Fold this protein.
Amino acid sequence: MIRPAEERDASTLAELMTQLGYPTSEAEMLSRLRVLLPNRDFATFVAEEENGVCGMIGLQSSISYEQDDRTGRIMALVVDERARRRGIGRELLVAAEEYFSLEKVERVVLTSRFEREKAHQFYESLGYKRTGLRFMKELPTR
């Protein structure tokens, strides 16, 4: 079952973010959710099975400089390592695309680390195309 995320999911979502390579505590995730969940430009969905939450997808939609219409961005997609290869990621992506469609979003973009080659194959199998590179720089905090 795919459903909107809630604050009560913070512990599991923190674990999923950690599995994705972004160490996150429950308190940090709860703080993030309290900002993200009420924000209309963001949507977070979880996949839930009988044992609880086993995946999540985080979305953002916004205007852009390049296009006149809204663009959807998949900010995070992760399935628990114990639940992979069962179609959960595909279900989350379908839910995201349905959500974006209702929001009148006409294109979806995402980024993925270079080393996640299986993820790249997965995205390409669902019609996503490689279109560029992402660059990042950490800035000092003041």
